[in-house]
Amino acid sequence: ANILKVRDDHLPASFAESEPGKFRFQEGTEVSWLSGEEFGIKELRSRIEPWLTSLFQSEHLSFLAGSGLTHAVHYLAADKPAAGMTAVTLSCHAAEINKAAEETAKAAGRSKGNFEDQLRSANELLRGLEILGDAKATTLRDDLKTILTQFSASILACEAGIATSDDSKRELAFNTLVTFLMSFASRTGTRDRLSIFTTNYDRLIEAGAELAGLHLLDRFVGSLMPIFRSSRLDLDMHYNPPGIRGEPRYLEGVARFTKLHGSVDWVHAGNDIRRIGLPFGAAKVDAYLGTPGLKDVDANRLMIYPNSAKDRETSDYPYVELFRDLAAAVCRPNSTLVTYGYSFGDEHINRVIRDMLTIPSTHLVVMSYNDPLGRIMKSYQEFGRPSQISLLIGPALSDIRTLTENFLPKAAI
């Protein structure tokens, strides 16, 4: 089923496809904007597109991409979804780690633990074993290195699946991604910059931005091996119009970018977090770690959340800085947050969204191809602010091609 709630709708309305290109609301559903029983994309567009256009020109606009974006683009390019974060096999204290992972997943409202839950639990156990001086700490550390190597390879395989697909399908996938991103980035010059956030470890958004000519501003400084800086100093890009002095204007096509869970090309080297030159869709990451300046760096040093370099006192670095950016961007008046492919399975992100909605002038737009575990609708009920939430759930609304061709504002700065 598809679920729609926009504008002045009091309740989410469910509808399904009755025949190709035609839809019908579920029995008992009444909407004020439709007189007949059947309707099509044209009626949906007249209802949704003007509403999104107005929201996208809010004073502050943020976009949160979940794994659904990667799956959508990968499916366009390769006719199959990208690899997910399935559970892995451990040789040391596997039962205890899996039990803790399952408990963590249930507390977050998920049916079973995934790779991140296992990694988080294993890191906590590793720290305990190191404190106790237990010999099994070495075994567990080797396990984690192997697992992270395999996981980074699966992320790169996902990128390679897009990059090496059939030419026509790859072009369609990237053109759709570029149009999708530019719908958000096309902001008038008087508005604040678009802020892009993602929980994904791959570089799909970076690749799309590069093709679109979209400049991404993040916390990394440098060219050869950029270094993560806590003092971002709110950097921006401006230009001076001809004949005007002292009045710089915003450069078009610029957005702020934050990867909340780290990235496959971030490594902990010495006292710093650096971004290495890892090509999009490379075969494996190991070949790019044995370079000068990355002494003793292996897969255990990849900054993949929650593998946050546990040998450091500041174990939450740099993630605490990244989540601070999220809260600062969305928790302010006249702010709109749009999510795509995010299943509301991360409680630390949900908490920020919940706090954002306590500000009456904020708005949340949820776009998702489906809601198989019901977490989106559960979060919608728990937030308790239906007038501040719009929903576009289902293939008829949030298939990435349908969305970009019919419902998203056209990229015209």
Biggest sheet details: 11 strands, mixed
Mean pLDDT score: 87
Radius of gyration: 22 Å
Spatial sequence of strands, sheet with the most strands: 4-3-2-1-18-17-16-5-6-12-7
In percent, how helical is the residue content? Answer: 25-40%
- Portion in beta strands: 15-25%
The number of distinct helices, counting runs of at least 4 residues, comes to: 12
SS content category: alpha/beta
Q: Tell the overall outline.
A: globular
Low-confidence stretches: 308-314
**Quick one: how many beta strands?**
18
Distance between the termini: 35 Å
Order of helices and strands: EEEEHEHHHHHEHEEEEEEEEEHEHEHEHH
In short:
38% of the residues lie in helices and 19% in strands.
Could you characterize the architecture of this molecule?
The chain is α/β, with parallel strands linked by helices and 413 residues long. Helices cover 38% and strands 19% of the residues. Helix 2 packs across helix 5, helix 4 runs antiparallel to helix 5 and helix 6 packs across helix 7. The longest helix is centred in the middle third of the chain and has 28 residues. About 2% of the residues have low confidence.
Topology:
Layout: E1 2-5, E2 13-19, E3 22-25, E4 38-39, H1 41-56, E5 60-65, H2 67-78, H3 94-107, H4 115-132, H5 136-163, H6 167-185, E6 194-198, H7 204-212, E7 215-217, E8 220-221, E9 227-228, E10 238-239, E11 249-250, E12 254-259, E13 262-269, E14 272-275, E15 302-304, H8 319-330, E16 335-340, H9 347-356, E17 363-368, H10 375-383, E18 389-393, H11 395-398, H12 400-407
Helix pairs in contact: 2-5, 2-6, 3-4, 4-5, 6-7, 6-12, 8-9
